[in-house]
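Table 4 source record.
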Amino acid sequence: MRGEIVRLLAALAALIPAAGHAEAEEQAPAVAVSYNAALVSDYRFRGISLTNRDPAVQAEVDLAFRSGLFLGTWASNIADYGGSKVEVEVYGGYGGEAAGFTWSAGAYAYLYPGGHDVNYVELQSTIARRLGPVTTTLTLAYTPDQWNTNRDNLYAGLGADVAIGETPLTASLGVGRENGGDDEKWDWSAGLSYKLDVLDISAAYVDSNYKGALEAGHNGGAGLVLSVKASL
């Protein structure tokens, strides 16, 4: 009997380090780095083309910390805007999960190298919930009155991504309303994406009711946006 107890204790002792190692492997890394690059037929921002309906090359780097903190930067070519032809976003914030919801809150700086009085800062928050194959996301973005504007701006967007069965296809729907810089503008979209290893291939119909002056009205009209994005 004593020999059996000794053997049992020895077996348990041998399992303890293995269990600890398994827990360490399951624990998220202190910081995760991700990259993506995309080629799009038209860079649309909340329904408006920022490339005069021309293609754009885009890239992003993200840092996600175990604590919930996130930092990142994103860049794209654009049509001339205040003397700049590049948009760079630098952002940071905090996110997490609670009661089945995924949320985030952060600050985004929109920078236009070489441009004159066009940079601005926006406060943005999201909350998402997954129910079966459907993930819905509410986005609120507030741009306070700052050095290069004379009014604040509020954007509210609601989107839904629907996984199509066991296929690599996802259907997406979205609608948004903006009040401030773009007076009571609505935008909407519907698309389909295909996941192929590290590639996301998508096509989306994008439109808005914005009929601004000069090219702004043209850039707010309906259009098909094709995209190929690689993520690592």
